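Reminder to self: tokens first, then the designed residues, so the page reads top to bottom the way the pipeline ran.
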């Protein structure tokens, strides 16, 4: 458990404008999520509603003061990719989405991205610690962590993905063998059958620091 020192970084969305659409990144308040999903179901409706309003009012005050005492244990990592009208997966949009990230300043095994035809330029030629692949047609996912000798090792993931007019992805921090408050650098790669097609954002990484 800990204190959320910069609530304005949590209670907002992050958006990148890219040619394929807008990439939105958000985090959730894990404590509020547990209250709504579990605790309130065993409480009287009026008591539950009053408690929730109290939490929301406290969050509002914390945002105004830029300080908070909200308790957290860990967060889910969310990504949202809005597709432009007319884009079809497998046609104008490649069938696979690959998230690759590493933790700057941390001592971990890292490895090159496990994709073919990858251009030898930054940031695509960086070494990464985690790789999450998503097949956009089937919704299947696979999580890999870098190990010794630049090898990738597969792990079970409880990540969830939804695809309609946009792609929504939730990755539990509990799936990752890294503290949830670690900053990370991420790149999103589009591919077909493991063969590179494009990436975003162009020529840079997404820098994230979990509040």
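Designed residues (211 positions):
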């Amino acid at each position: 458990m800990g204190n959320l020192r910069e609530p304005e970084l949590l209670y907002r969305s992050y958006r990148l404008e890219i040619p394929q659409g807008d990439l939105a990144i958000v985090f959730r308040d894990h404590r509020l999520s547990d209250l709504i999903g579990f605790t309130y179901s065993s409480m009287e409706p009026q008591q539950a509603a009053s408690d929730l309003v109290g939490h929301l009012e406290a969050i509002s005050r914390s945002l105004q003061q830029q300080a908070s005492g909200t308790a957290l244990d860990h967060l889910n990592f969310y990504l949202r990719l809005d597709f432009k009208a007319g884009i079809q997966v497998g046609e104008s949009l490649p069938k696979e989405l690959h998230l690759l990230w590493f933790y700057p300043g941390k001592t971990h095994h890292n490895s090159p991205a496990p994709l073919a035809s990858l251009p030898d330029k930054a940031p695509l030629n960086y070494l990464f610690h985690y790789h999450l692949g998503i097949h956009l047609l089937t919704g299947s996912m696979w999580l890999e962590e870098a190990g010794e000798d630049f090898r990738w090792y597969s792990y079970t993931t409880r990540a969830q993905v939804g695809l309609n007019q946009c792609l929504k992805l939730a990755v539990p921090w509990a799936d990752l063998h890294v503290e949830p408050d670690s900053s990370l650098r991420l790149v999103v790669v589009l591919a077909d059958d493991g063969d590179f097609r494009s990436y975003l954002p162009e020529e840079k990484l997404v820098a994230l620091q979990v509040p």
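The two ends are 13 Å apart (CA to CA).
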